[in-house]
Amino acid sequence: MSAIVRGKVHKYGDNINTDIISPPQYMELSIAEAAKYAMSAIDPDFAAKVQKGDILVAGANFGSGSSRETSPLTLKYLGVGAIVAKFFARIFYRNAINLGIPVIECSDADKIQNGDTIEIDLETGIIRNITRQETYQGTRIPAHILELINEGGLVPYLKKTI
């Protein structure tokens, strides 16, 4: 993965919890099957319209709820290239990183709109809104975490380094 992620935005609001991201009634399915229902509680068409590299943008408290990995796993399976939010629930934040999904906190996430194309420099945290010709400052990803993300997550990183 490059240090630059560019994609179309799928925008949601505050308090998107893990039950919304990956509805619990589909937990027993394979990740491939469960991914078809990702975000379906608030956007029934999400799984059908998200394309590899697209960027999910949300408000405050993204990923609150349970600690199960199915939520970030379904997003990864669908090809979400990064997630930007005002702030994340810590367990979701760590699970996403462990699975190789870049997560950026940005206090200006509300300025980004559904359908915008944005470009994120993961090393600096700078988010360029190509559609609106605006720039926002998000959190940067430290080099050692970026290396883990570039390897596809914690397990592939450990397999390579141990």
UniProtKB/TrEMBL annotation:
Zinc-finger recorded as keyword: no
Residue span(s) of domain Aconitase A/isopropylmalate dehydratase small subunit swivel: 37-105
Pathway in which this enzyme or protein is active: Amino-acid biosynthesis; L-leucine biosynthesis; L-leucine from 3-methyl-2-oxobutanoate: step 2/4
Amino-acid biosynthesis keyword on record: yes
One GO biological process term: L-leucine biosynthetic process
Alphabetized UniProt keyword annotations: Amino-acid biosynthesis, Branched-chain amino acid biosynthesis, Leucine biosynthesis, Lyase
EC number(s) recorded for this UniProt protein: 4.2.1.33
MF annotations from Gene Ontology: 3-isopropylmalate dehydratase activity
Pfam families in the cross-refs: Aconitase_C
Function: Catalyzes the isomerization between 2-isopropylmalate and 3-isopropylmalate, via the formation of 2-isopropylmaleate.
Similarity section: Belongs to the LeuD family. LeuD type 2 subfamily.
HAMAP family found in the cross-reference section: LeuD_type2
Subunit comment: Heterodimer of LeuC and LeuD.
Name of the protein this chain belongs to: 3-isopropylmalate dehydratase small subunit
Organism: Sporolituus thermophilus DSM 23256
This protein's encoding gene: leuD
